[in-house]
Amino acid sequence: PSSASALASPSSASALASPSSASALASQALELVLLDVRLGEEDGLDLARWIRATPELKHLPVIAVTAHALRHEQDEIMRQGCNAVVSKPIDFRLLRRQLDLWLSVTR
Questions:
Q1: Distance between CA 44 and CA 4 in Å, rounded?
Q2: Sorting pLDDT into bands at 50, 70 and 90, what band is 16?
């Protein structure tokens, strides 16, 4: 769903709806966060900054999904703590390449 962040763990993938994204993240064994920049009630970039500031989570790759396709917007998303940005509408081949790349880093 567009108003949720999807999380990938070794054994499963699940979607977490706001407003409890941060507490849900802290309770999971994760390899990667696929983050919708617009989380509805929450700002996805706030969540990305929180991940980077949380010692036990800061190593997690964060891939942002966003409708913001302009280069300077994507650069700002990266500065806020995301490792990669995939624009909507999603090119699933590009998403797959990013997932493969960042999951290989965590394994």
A1: 9
A2: very low
